Amino acid sequence: MRSIRVTLLLIVATGLPVAAADLAAAKKDFIRFCAKCHGPQGKGDGPQADALATKPRDFTDCARMKGIPEDTLFTAIKEGGEAAHLSKEMPPWKNGMDDGEIHGLVEYIRSLCSK
User: Fold this and answer.
1) N or C: which end of the chain has fewer CB within 10 A?
2) 115 residues of the chain, pLDDT tens digit each
């Protein structure tokens, strides 16, 4: 029983910094891939936003973001907005990120509306 507690404690103790590191990596991906349109804080006000027919989503709008399932965000990022029945101007990033990175990016985007 003691060895199970120690193992669980080690998992929890080492898992928290990894989660924080993953979120930091996801933030870098956000800046690299998303901020041009969605803005550095995710408010939909990036430098290229005005050139789009559809205003990029404001990820800090918690009421609106709560209505978007995780799988919809994942699909929009991986396959592009049109694949998720969103804006066709949202490009697919499947060639720039793997599934793990996209899941991290979804988690980071979710964190923007919890502030």
Assistant:
1) N
2) 554 444 444 444 444 444 666 899 999 999 999 999 999 999 999 999 999 999 999 999 999 999 999 999 999 999 999 999 999 999 999 999 999 999 999 999 999 987 5
Please list the helix, strand and coil fractions of the chain in percent, rounded to the nearest 5, in that order. Answer: 65, 0, 35
Q: What are phi and psi of 29, to 5 degrees?
A: -65, -40
Q: Considering its fold, how many domains does the chain have in total?
A: 1
Instruction: For residue 54, report the phi and psi dihedrals to the nearest 5 degrees.
Output: -110, 125
Between vectors from CA 100 to CA 79 and to CA 23, what angle results, nearest 5°? 110
88 occurs within a structural domain? yes
Whether 37 is covered by a domain: the verdict is: yes
Q: With H, G, I as helix, E, B as strand and everything else as coil, classify residue 67.
A: coil
Domain of 108 in residue numbering reads as 24-112
Tell me the CATH number at 61.
1.10.760.10
